Structure formats: C-alpha cells, structure tokens
UniProtKB/TrEMBL annotation:
It comes from the Eukaryota. InterPro entries: Aminotrans_3, BioA, PyrdxlP-dep_Trfase, PyrdxlP-dep_Trfase_major, PyrdxlP-dep_Trfase_small. Belongs to the class-III pyridoxal-phosphate-dependent aminotransferase family. Pathway: Cofactor biosynthesis; biotin biosynthesis. Pfam families: Aminotran_3 (PF00202). Keywords: Aminotransferase, Biotin biosynthesis, Pyridoxal phosphate, S-adenosyl-L-methionine, Transferase. This is Biotin biosynthesis bifunctional protein BioAB. The keyword Transferase applies. Signal peptide: none annotated.
C-alpha cells in the first residue's frame, strides 16, 4: 500500500488483447483472473447487457423475481451434474463458498446434528478471501496466515503429492483417518476438483473425488466442490468433476518428474463410469464471461429439504443476489458455451501449450511444467523475487501475465474466436524469454 508495484493503465480491451494508455498492445494471458473465457467485448455479451439495462438494472431478490434470474437458474440445472437442481444466485465466487458452508452448517443444525459445524479440506487449497472461505484455505502456505487467530479452526489433510492414482489413494487414506476420528463434528469436505487454483496450480487424479464421495457417504459428511476456477470448460470438461468419468479419465500414472501433461487415459487403473456428484457446488468467475461479478451455489434436493423442508429459511440474503444485469450476461455466456465449439477450441489451446511449454524444462530455473486443458503452468525452483521487474518484462514482451510465488502460468481466453495459435505461442515465448533473461541465476 505504501510502496505499490507499478500498474499499467488500460484504455481498451478487445478480443484477447489489452490496449494500454501509451498505445502498447498486450495479449491477455490470464482471462482477467480466469473469468473472460470468451475474451473481451464479445458482441453477444455486449448486446445482452445493453438490452437488459433498458429494462431494469436491479430489483431486490426477496419477494420479487424476474425472468433473467429464473432462466439462468434453469440453464445451470440443465448444464450441471444430475441432482444439483437447487440454485442460489449470489454476489461472487467467495460468497458462493460462504453460502455453501452456511448451507452445510444449517443443514446439520436443522436436521438435529448441530455439532457438525467444522470443515475438512485439502492443504494447499484456496477458496476465497472472505472469512469463512479463508478458514478453509491453506493456513500455512496460503496468503491468510496472519488472520488465523480470527478464523474458525478447520481440519486439513495432505494434498496428493502428484497426479497419480497412488497419490490420490494416499490422500484418501488421510481423509478416511480424519473422518473416522472426527466425523461427528464435521459438516462437509470442501475441495477444488482436479486442479487447486491460487493455492499453487496443483493437479491431482480425479480418483480422489470418487473416494471422497464414498467416504463422505460412509461417515455422513457432506461433499462440496469448489468449481469457481475450474467450471465452464477450463479443464477440458464442462465441470472438472466430470473428469471422474471413464470417458475423461485423464491423469497419468505415475506423473512424470518434469513434464506433466495429465492426458494419458491408457494408464488409468480404475475407471469411473459416472461423474462424482457433490451435495453442493460453488460457481463463479467465468459464469458471466468476466463481465460482472456473480456467483452461484447449487445443491441437491436433500440439502434443500434439510434446510427448509419444515418451513425454515436459508439464512443468507445478499443485496445484489440475482442481479438482472449479471443474470442476463451469464445467460449469454452460457449460451455461447452451449452453441459454440468450445471443446475443439480448448483442445487446440491445450495442444499448443503442451508443444510449446515442454521445452521450458530444459531451463535450469524450471522445476516442472504441467498442462491441463486451458491451463499452462511453469513452476520454478525459487519464488519470483523482483515482481516489478518480471511483470514489466512480460509487458515488454507484449503479454499480460501475473506470476505469483514460484509460478509463471497462463489461462488464455480459450473460447474467444479471436484467439489464435499465434497468440498462445506469443504467451509461451514470453515465459521462455522472461525465465531466460530475467530470472537467470
């Protein structure tokens, strides 16, 4: 706050590029923090906002309703995994996690088990910056360690060490040990499926999701999937949890030491015929295509009936829940996913990322490269020390990336018709140049 890093003023965003106030153009390699999957100034999304603002910008969503929110709810039910047919529209991804946690606690309270109020989660996870969400982020390696004295004390189990099935089984054994000992006080297991986002961009086998579902059922603990970063196609399936199906069994066994592309279905040992369905799922980021802040928390009928089946009310009501502008642009964004070949576009991005990033492993500063869907990660041996210098180096290369810790990573606007192979290559070339010239030992 007193010595801020340099910032770069943006004059315009179009397609997959940012135009700075000084006239320079940058390829946007972060999808505006993973949200702008269709790129910037998409005609369909622009039109949806303009049409809706002529009708109404907002009305309270208590005692009133409106067509955009109702339509969005129906679309989410149709797109999601079977059984997730109750939708709560809220303000943001972090709030969707807060809502999910409150749903779990209120479910157990109203069904006669108020002691079940704590949460178990994986280490190295990240679920948001609000207080409930911070409590289930990694307490040591995360960014919230200074707040631990004020946060609810949750339960953590070790993250899979790599993306092999053996590592997933080891993590599941750790989860079993915790559930055996503490299930009477645990409301839910909350986890980011397949990819841990801001906690370190770690990938793991979807076999853990299957084992978690079995364990949660065995010990009467709810299962919450945080798909805020992974939802709406980013990992190669519409939701990352769908990678647990036999068709999308993608993880490698074992994970190579230097290059993990996580696409070796022939090595899968334990196919899963149906996707693992959680009790509650959290959505955000790409929900509105990066245009407006909005989140959604979806739950099964069991959760809905448990909370309100006797006439109770779920105790949460954000002022801007179900906002008509956000609902309208979310409908347009989801319609693009349904009606455009996003899978083919994502596969093309993934192919380029694999081909171009593999050579980074030859650099001494690089520990591992991993690619999954539209996510490309270059993990360094040491954290970036001079963030200002590295950030400026990317700008000089004509690319916008935002490194953190040991990670130089990209999540391009994979469903933008403006994105070309050349854009993705420019991003990977910039990573190579920065590692070579600005992170040299």
């Amino acid at each position: 706050m007193t010595e801020p890093l340099p910032t770069y003023a943006v004059r315009r965003a179009q397609g997959v590029e940012l135009e700075l106030e000084d006239g320079r153009t940058l390829v946007e390699g972060m999808s505006s923090w993973w949200a702008a999957l269709h790129g910037f100034r998409h005609p369909a999304l622009d039109a949806a906002l303009k049409e809706q603002v002529d009708k109404m910008a907002h009305v309270m969503f208590g005692g009133l309703t409106h067509e955009p929110a109702a339509t969005l709810g129906k679309m989410l039910v149709d797109m999601s995994m079977p059984g997730l047919d109750k939708v709560f529209l809220c303000d943001s991804g972090s709030v969707s996690v807060e809502v999910a946690m409150k749903m779990a606690v209120q479910f157990w309270f109203t069904t006669g088990k108020p002691a079940k109020s704590k949460f178990v989660t994986l280490r190295n996870g990240y679920h948001g910056d609000t207080f409930g969400a911070m409590s289930v982020c990694d307490p040591v390696n995360g960014m919230h360690s200074m707040f631990q004295g004020s946060l609810a004390k949750q339960v953590f189990v070790d993250t899979p060490s790599d993306c092999s099935e053996a590592a997933a089984l080891e993590a599941a054994a750790g989860l079993r040990a915790v559930l055996e000992e503490r299930h009477e006080e645990l409301a839910a297991f909350i986890v980011e499926p397949v990819v841990q986002g801001a906690g370190g961009m770690r990938f793991y086998s979807p076999l853990l999701l299957k084992k978690a579902r079995e364990l949660c059922d065995e010990f009467d603990v709810l299962l919450i999937f945080d798909e805020i970063a992974t939802g709406f196609g980013r990992t190669g399936t519409l939701f990352a949890a769908e990678q647990s199906t036999e068709q999308f069994k993608p993880m490698c066994t074992p994970c190579p030491a230097e290059v993990c592309t996580c696409r070796h279905p022939e090595q899968a040992q334990e196919p899963v015929s149906e996707p693992v369905v959680p009790d509650i799922i959290c959505l955000g980021k790409a929900l509105t295509g990066g245009y407006m802040t909005m989140g959604a928390t979806m739950a099964t009928d069991r959760i809905s009936q448990g909370i309100s089946g006797t006439g109770g009310v779920f105790m949460h009501g954000p002022t801007f829940m179900g906002n008509p502008l956000a609902s309208a642009v979310a409908i347009a964004s989801l319609s693009l996913l349904v009606n455009e070949p996003w899978g083919m576009r994502l596969a093309a991005v993934e192919d380029v990322l694999k081909a171009e990033m593999e050579s980074l492993t030859d650099l001494a500063q690089v520990k591992q490269v991993r690619v999954l869907g539209g996510i490309g990660v270059c993990e360094l041996h040491e954290p970036v020390k001079d963030m200002a210098r590295v950030q400026n180096a990317f700008v000089e290369q004509g690319v916008w990336l935002r490194p953190f810790g040991k990670l130089l990573y990209t999540m391009p606007c994979f469903n933008s018709p403006a994105l070309t192979d050349e854009h993705v290559v420019k991003i990977t070339d910039a990573i190579r140049a920065v590692v070579t010239n600005d992170l040299a030992e």
